[in-house]
Every structure is written in C-alpha cells, then in structure tokens.
Amino acid sequence: VQLVESGGGLVQAGESLRLSCTASGSRFTLNTMGWYRQAPEKERELVAAISNGGTTYYAESVGGRFTISRGTGANAVALQMTSLESDDTAMYYCVAKRGYYAGPGGQWEHWGQGTQVTVSS
Predict the structure, then answer these.
(1) What Cα–Cα distance (Å) separates residue 73 from each residue in 22, 52, 54?
(2) Percent of the chain residues past pLDDT 70, beyond the cut
(3) H/E/C letters for each residue in the chain?
(4) CA distances to 2, 23, 58, 105, 109 from 81, in Å
(5) Residue 97 contacts residue 106 (beta carbons within 8 Å)
(6) Does 106 or 4 have the greater pLDDT score?
(7) How confident is residue 20, by pLDDT bands cut at 50, 70 and 90?
(8) Torsion of CA 84, 89, 93, 96, to 10 degrees
(9) 35-67: per-residue pLDDT in tens?
(10) In Å, how far are 26, 33, 41, 62 from 97, measured between CA atoms?
C-alpha cells in the first residue's frame, strides 16, 4: 500500500494550507485515515483522524483550526489547516488502517513519506 501526500509548503503565520493524501494498492478499504506530525526534537503527534463511520479525532493543539475529511475516493483524506502558527511547523505524515479506532494510541498499518509544512512568524 502506498500513501502519497501533497499540499505542504511554506506559509506565513495566520495563513492556510490543505494537505491531501491518496492511498493505492490496498485490497481492503482503509476505514480510518489520519495525519501525524513530527517536528525536530518533539514527539510524534497524532494531529487528526477520521473513520468511515464519521468519528473524528483532533489533537487539542489544533482543535478549531484544522478540519479532516475523507476524499471522494474510497481511500483518500484531506486536512484543511487554517490560522497556522509557527508551532505547526513539522513534517506531516498520512496514516491509514483497516480498523475503525480513530483516537490516539492505536496502531497504524500504513504510513506515507511525509510532506513538510513550514510556518514563518
């Protein structure tokens, strides 16, 4: 299974970005997809996740600013990021799994290569 992310880049604080991810090569529906991020010298963090049943999870640090949605394809997900802050600077990774648990602490079967988001203040 290959997850391909797009949409990262360099923006100024307060601006918006939209990340997209499409999965290919899976024989199964990836029922839950999400986004992790990792900044230098910081722990990896589950930013947001969404299941096909509609359950969503957001990290407290991004609540109200980020919105996750499933794409029109069966195995696609997007992350709309608004009011970006310098603390949002990180490598963002798309993740996916067949299970339905969308919260933190779960195991993810598939990971993308990552897309860099840099927010200048």
Answers:
(1) 8, 12, 15
(2) 98
(3) CEEEEECCEEEECCCCEEEEEEEECCCCCCCEEEEEEECCCCCCEEEEEEECCCCEEECCCCCCCEEEEECCCCCEEEEEECCCCHHHCEEEEEEEECCCCCCCCCCCCEECCCEEEEEEC
(4) 23, 20, 12, 23, 24
(5) yes
(6) 4
(7) very high
(8) -40
(9) 999 999 999 999 999 998 889 999 999 989 999
(10) 10, 7, 27, 22
Residue with tokens 């603390």: 87
- Residue among 112, 101, 109, 100 at smallest CA distance from 36: 112
